Amino acid sequence: MPLFLKKNWVYILLIIVIILLGYLAYAQSGWSLVQEGFLKGFSILWHELPLLTAAFLTAGFLQALVKKEFITRWLGKDSGVKGILLACLGGGLIPGGPYAYYPIANALLKSGAGLGVLIAFVTAKNLWSVSRIPLEIAILGTTITVRRYLITFLIPPVLGIITEKIFGKFIKSILENVE
Amino acid sequence: MNTATIILWIIALVMFLFSWKDSPDTVKRGGLLSFQTTKQNGLLIVLAFVIVGFVNVLSPQKLVQEWIGPASGLQGILLAEVVGMLLPGGPYVVFPLIAILSEAGAGIAPVITLITSWSTQSLLTLSFELPLMGWRFMLIRWVLGLGIPLLAGAAVLLLWG
Question: Does the predicted interface ipTM exceed a cut of 0.95?
Answer without folding.
Answer: no
